[in-house]
Design brief:
The protein is mostly helical and about 350 residues long. The protein has 14 helices and 2 strands, in the order H-E-H-H-H-E-H-H-H-H-H-H-H-H-H-H.
């Protein structure tokens, strides 16, 4: 991606501040920052050096991060706009988030996958769908007002679910499939696509059934040294589904809460003691830095909703990660988006 098409977080914040100030003073339709270009296809450098994806080559990892920095910055910025930045009372930011998504929808962005791009496409679809639901809820808008975005997200989610069924069928499903379920469910809520909703619920129930007696995901233990990172990466979309779903959709029953709590307990224990996980993985599991990852910190807040029903109000836990986009700054533990919409009215 050319350098001029990359939106850094710093440049976005400057543009966002100018746009929201102009909108607030003029009381007219906001002047939004120009959306960064997102390509029609995604690819990435594979930075693992072994078949289990447990050993990382630092140089290849750096190349991968640089190659796709534009995508991370764009989704981070989108999530910030959707939540209203530091001024959630200003509707201009939600309007800008929706205008960005309209622009990307018209270009059919991210709909194809090149070598190494599958995971990027899946987590991007999850991030986009969460930002979309947030912008609609806080911006007091209906999905029918954004049919191009609905069509785009629906095509993206449908393609992803087909690819997962072909590439990771049955017991080969893992954390990537769980992220696909998150994208599929949130897309189904705004589009009314029942097939996506059914698929996401089936994946979710299978994932919960896979959690073993010690709280581990067997598919993630196969990652060896990286098992703890992938335990968290599997937990994240599942607890997000629990928090963002409607009661009627079958993600929030007592069975789900108990199974998720078991996986959360194992993930949290691994941050300070990797011995049980290392024994099961057959190698010493690396925990360095995992507790400080933005994704781990956001997941910890969501996990509190499962374990105790009340999210942490510790300011240190308020952060965001581009794969979720939004930071759940006004987190509601039950029917999160319904509660946001009700508060915005």
């Amino acid at each position: 991606m050319p350098t001029q098409n990359r939106l850094t977080v710093r440049s976005f914040l400057a543009l966002w501040a100018l746009a929201t100030c102009a909108s607030a003073s003029a009381q007219v339709a906001p002047s939004c920052p120009t959306p960064p270009e997102l390509p029609p296809s995604l690819g990435s450098v594979d930075y693992y050096t072994d078949a289990k994806h447990s050993v990382i080559d630092p140089e290849l990892q750096k190349r991968s991060e640089e190659q796709n920095r534009f995508l991370r910055d764009a989704l981070y910025a989108l999530g910030r706009m959707a939540e209203g930045g530091d001024r959630p009372q200003v509707l201009a930011t939600q309007a800008c988030a929706l205008s960005w998504m309209e622009a990307w929808a018209r270009r059919d962005a991210l709909e194809r996958v090149d070598k190494g791009g599958t995971v990027l496409q899946v987590v991007s679809a999850a991030s986009l769908s969460l930002a979309y639901r947030t912008a609609l809820a806080l911006g007091k808008e209906a999905p029918r007002e954004h049919l191009a975005v609905n069509r785009w997200l629906e095509q993206l989610a449908t393609s992803i679910t087909r690819n997962e069924d072909m590439g990771r069928p049955g017991d080969q499903r893992n954390n990537v499939t769980y992220w696909a379920a998150l994208a599929a469910y949130n897309t189904s809520v705004v589009t009314g696509n029942r097939a996506l909703s059914t698929w996401s619920r089936e994946v979710y129930r299978q994932a919960l059934a896979e959690i073993d007696n010690e709280g581990f995901f067997p598919s993630e233990l196969k990652r060896g040294q990286q098992a703890l990172r992938y335990q968290w990466f599997a937990v994240t979309p599942l607890v997000t589904l629990y928090v963002t779903s409607h009661d009627k959709d079958g993600f929030r029953d007592e069975y789900s809460r108990a199974r998720l709590a078991k996986a959360i307990t194992a993930a949290r224990a691994g941050l300070t003691n990797t011995a049980p996980m290392s024994r099961r993985a057959g190698t010493k599991v690396d925990a360095e830095g995992v507790s400080g990852y933005a994704l781990t910190r956001v997941t910890q807040r969501l996990a509190d909703c499962v374990v105790s029903g009340t999210p942490s109000d510790n300011p240190a836990s308020l952060t965001r990660d581009w794969r979720l986009g939004i930071g759940f700054r006004n987190l509601r533990c039950e029917n999160h988006f319904d509660a946001l919409a009700a508060a915005a009215r």
